[in-house]
Amino acid sequence: MANFSYEVFSEVAKRKTFFAAATQLRVTPSAVSHSIAGLEKELGFSLFVRNRTGVKLTSDGKKVLPVVQEILNTEAKLREEAARINGLNEGRIRIGAFSSVCINWLPDIIRSFKKTYPNIELSVIQGNFNAVAEQVRVGTLDLGFSALPIKEKLEVIPLHRDPIYCITPKSFTPRADKIIARSDIQDKNFILQQIDYDRDTKKALDTYNVSVNSIHYSIDDASIIAMVESGLGLGILPELALQKLSGNVNRYPFQEHFYRTICLISHAEAKQTPSTRAFVKEIQKYLLKRYGDEWAKQFANLF
């Protein structure tokens, strides 16, 4: 089975249509269809179920996708290692991250990395915590920024404890002036992203016995700020998400301290390419510069 068939399979699984995969691979849709048919014949089972909107993986297809992706990643690692031996500065790194890391960390990290490694190709995909972890697991991403806990069997490096704040309208004043206590948020509505409700945000709300009926879901961090500003409820957001958001709102710490722990996820270091290992070092350098000695005491020895 030629590796081109593996590339086609991986791309169709990602794009979910033969046409989109063909466009990405710069071949005809019929070539993609022929390649998938040949691979299915050789494997002895169907890889995709066709429907009106495109295709989706069969249960067997889901089982073999990580194996195929590992073969493709190993081939990319071989090419990059050969380039390194030959003294060339080449490679590819596929990065996944959630929005506040994409906005606040990655631009500076990538800019600095590119000064040293200008010929290494970087691609960034934005997604939620679970989506990023799943793509790292199957091998379509090399590195991912997510938040603990990570259920997938991956290498996990904690990076930063990100404080979580209560976001209120300007007209709201806590009874203790600068700290949110249980009595401040009784019978209050909360606005948050649904994906956040199974992690540290849920821990904060559960601690304060906030009813599920009092929770309303929003699309993103900016819309949470807008809704709080309009007096539709209170919000909960971590510090990093607030860095480049503006609005006529206040932020207060809770009486109990809550954090989310941002982490870096990847496959075992032995599977990482030289360029990926170099990018991890760039992340470490950036965080040390941004957060200083206190960060180094907590996290530097984890790399």
From TrEMBL:
<dbReference type="GO" id="GO:0003677">
    <property type="term" value="F:DNA binding"/>
</dbReference>
<dbReference type="InterPro" id="IPR050950">
    <property type="entry name" value="HTH-type_LysR_regulators"/>
</dbReference>
<dbReference type="GO" id="GO:0003700">
    <property type="term" value="F:DNA-binding transcription factor activity"/>
</dbReference>
<dbReference type="InterPro" id="IPR036390">
    <property type="entry name" value="WH_DNA-bd_sf"/>
</dbReference>
<dbReference type="Pfam" id="PF00126">
    <property type="entry name" value="HTH_1"/>
</dbReference>
<dbReference type="InterPro" id="IPR005119">
    <property type="entry name" value="LysR_subst-bd"/>
</dbReference>
<keyword id="KW-0805">Transcription regulation</keyword>
<dbReference type="Pfam" id="PF03466">
    <property type="entry name" value="LysR_substrate"/>
</dbReference>
<keyword id="KW-0804">Transcription</keyword>
<keyword id="KW-0238">DNA-binding</keyword>
<protein>
    <submittedName>
        <fullName>LysR family transcriptional regulator</fullName>
    </submittedName>
</protein>
<comment type="similarity">
    <text>Belongs to the LysR transcriptional regulatory family.</text>
</comment>
<dbReference type="InterPro" id="IPR000847">
    <property type="entry name" value="LysR_HTH_N"/>
</dbReference>
<dbReference type="GO" id="GO:0005829">
    <property type="term" value="C:cytosol"/>
</dbReference>
<feature type="domain" description="HTH lysR-type">
    <location>
        <begin position="7"/>
        <end position="58"/>
    </location>
</feature>
<dbReference type="InterPro" id="IPR036388">
    <property type="entry name" value="WH-like_DNA-bd_sf"/>
</dbReference>
